[in-house]
Amino acid sequence: MTTISLAGRTAFVTGSTRGIGLAIARALHAAGARVAVVGRALERARAVAAELGEGAAGVGCDVTSADEVQAAVAAAEQALGPIDILVNNAGLTRDNILLRLTDADWDAVLDANLKGAFHTTRAVIKGMMKRRAGRIVNITSVVGLTGNKGQANYAASKAGLIGFTKSVAREYASRGVLANCVAPGFIATDMTAALPDDARATLLQDIALGRLGQPDDVAGAVLFLASDLAGYVTGQVLVVDGGMVI
Ligand code: NDP
Q: Which atom of ligand 1 is nearest to the CA of 212?
């Protein structure tokens, strides 16, 4: 059995102040990586980094701002060294039926979920190319594959992220940079906490494994894709949904 070691690597995980991103940051750090904990709430990012311990740094950054991303990447690299692993996890929802979706709902979701990943990837790719090594893992959603009522903006952002990832995978494979997506199903976090009990019960009926996913379920898939075990995997979407979409 091979154990996964990321010793000597530096990871930049957006939206790692809570939820899935926090579980990813913990998993990568436990595997030996240095980890930049990134979120809009700087104090929270610093607190999470302090909780992780040595080899972690908290960085404040709104991924919708190219300038903030550039500054955050520079700060992370100064504190922890060149970024080898980028995890684009920051994301949000502004759900509504199409007829009621405002331009602001559309822009907020596309800017954070899709443009944010463009900003971070552009900021780290040159260094990865030079070092001829890099891993990019983008957190999309099964909704990006299937669509969902009331989530046209969110599904478009997540489907867009898949197209973006496949393009990056093709563009930088020859430079040793691998890019993949993880597509979670229904994971118990702040994002899904507001779902009413009856909707939750209906959803559970569609999950073959009969339970909601936990953030650690997603973190395991990210850890694999960031590791040497996945050295021949690029441009793929790994679905982590307990058998919701088969
Ligand atoms: P949470 O709402 O629990 O956490 C979202 C994280 O993203 C927070 O750390 C938040 O930090 C950060 N964030 C949000 N907007 C920005 C921004 N503009 N710039 C920087 N950071 C930002 O979400 P989840 O953990 O549930 O979701 C994480 C990812 O997984 C998202 O991309 C989501 O779409 C995806 N996903 C989640 C599923 C689920 O069932 N939960 C299912 C499928 C996909 P802060 O507030 O400090 O900025």
A: 40
172 is catalytic: no
Cα–Cα distance between 132 and 173 in angstroms, integer?
9
pTM across the whole model: 0.98
Q: How many residues would you count in the chain?
A: 246
Residue 40 CB–ligand 1 contact under 6 Å: yes
- The enclosing H or E element of 76 equals helix 66-80
Q: How far is the C-alpha of 135 from the C-alpha of 169, rounded, in Å?
A: 10
- Choose the catalytic residue: 106, 118, 154, 172: 154
CB of 103 sitting under 6 A from ligand 1: no
How far does Cα 95 stand from its chain's mean position?
20
As given in the structure block, the two tokens for residue 96 are 């509504």
d(CA 48, CA 113): 22
Residue 125 belongs to what H/E stretch?
A: helix 116-131
Query: Residue 174 in contact with residue 160, Cβ under 8 Å?
Result: no
Q: Taking the CA of residue 137 as centre, how many other CA atoms within 13 Å lie in the half-sphere pointing to its CB?
A: 30
Q: What is the pLDDT of residues 2-30, one digit of tens each?
A: 789 999 999 999 999 999 999 999 999 99
Q: Please state, in angstroms and rounded to a whole number, the distance separating the CA atoms of residues 116 and 89.
A: 10
Centre of ligand 1 to C-alpha 116, Å, is 12
pLDDT, one tens digit per residue, over 78-118 is 999 999 999 999 999 999 999 999 999 999 999 999 999 99
Ligand 1 contacts CB of residue 141 (under 6 A): yes
